[in-house]
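Re: beginner question about structure tokens

> Can someone show what the tokenized structure looks like for a real chain? I only ever see the sequence side.

Sure, here's an example I had lying around. Input first:
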Amino acid sequence: MNFIKFFEKNLPWIQIKRLPLLLCVGYLVFFILLITELIGSNQILLHWNDIHSNKEYWRLFTFVFYIPSHPLFIYFAIMIQWLIGSAMESTWGSIKFTLFFYFTCFTTICLSILFPHLIFTDWFSVNVFLVFAFYFPNYTFMLFFILPIKVKWLAYLLWFGLILSIFNSKFSVESFIRIMPVVLPLLVFIGREYVLKIRYKARKEIIATKNQMATKKFRHQCKVCNTTDLIDPMKEFRYIEENGETNCYCEPHLPTKKNY
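And the corresponding structure tokens:
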């Protein structure tokens, strides 16, 4: 990606090294503040009406660290950022991973400005998980330390949940807007790779089919068009005695009865 190379060459200082670790610390701090009721979730979520009318500018930063006050949520948030986030930071490099974080936050803030009545939370952990599932689909997690499950199935389940939320809202505009902080960063950062991956997979299947057909012997081959039962398994073939020889024809090229 050209813009990634531009930042790597000209603006290397924008990167946040060990960003996953910093996010984990932030999640833990705000989780403690929430469960001890020192702050409320309505004070840190991204709501542009409150930012504009009440001058609550801290919401532009605190929404990133919002975690529902339940131990299960904080466990998964820290696991995703510590394990998966660190893996993606190593795979992409610190600058690209940081830009991915910036772009997700920037997208969310822009949407909150355009739709000031909506309340937004952070989707970065979800985005990191989906990107990891794209690059390492067969990585196996021990869910609840008991059930082995490949990360791609968890990603499919997550996408199903997002789509289901749109159905449940009867395709309201708000439901589409709320998932844009997931869709837009993924399109920008892995959209092209996803298309190339689909093309490569389709081409690989075509080549594999051709190789299989080349190594596998056919049973019938039309004398006229050279079509075989491997090329078109649904086509019917007939054998006819002609001048002491047995020739094979497909149904469209059968000689008329006067010829045999």
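Each token stands for a local structural state, so reading them left to right follows the chain. The first strand starts at residue 46 and ends at 47.
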